[in-house]
Amino acid sequence: MRQSPRCPPTANIYIVEAEFSTILTESDPIENQIVVHKNSSTRSGTPSILAVIDFAESSLHALRWAAAMAAKLNAHVTIVHPYRLNQLEKKENMIKVKKAIDVDAAQNFDRIAKTIFKPSQSYDFRSEVGFIADRVQDFLHKNRVVMLVISKSMVGANREVLDELIQQSDVPLVIVPEATN
Questions:
Q1: What would the pLDDT profile of 64-85 be if each residue is shown by its tens digit?
Q2: Domains of the chain
Q3: 0.70 exceeded by pTM
């Protein structure tokens, strides 16, 4: 696949029942292959990309890819960090633990966002309790996006996660492999 000069290395791309996208070919840069559906936007009217991260280096690589694609499409990026609260001690206060995790995630994201996004880029970050597929489905149900971006490591460890994302998503699903040096 031909590389775009300003876009990170291309990802393994799977299009899932996306009525408004074209079939990807190896001869065209990715930004020429995405057709933005007229209804695919945030409330502000800007196209939106949903990126799912877990703060592992592979998911940050996928976020860099999403940010580069968003810059090319003049799109907003929503970053969702799903996590589970499954190993609490009986004495722990679930609300306090959740708040601490959310604050920590927001601080971590603030540190990395400065290195990933251009100052003029539009993005927002959400830290949410739940399974990956459930958080994605909820977001897709409430918002309109042009694509979903996730790292291969986040879906590779559990085939069930990938299957659920494919079944539940009606937008292109971009799976970004780990960066190679």
A1: 999 999 998 889 999 999 998 8
A2: 46-176 (3.40.50.620)
A3: yes
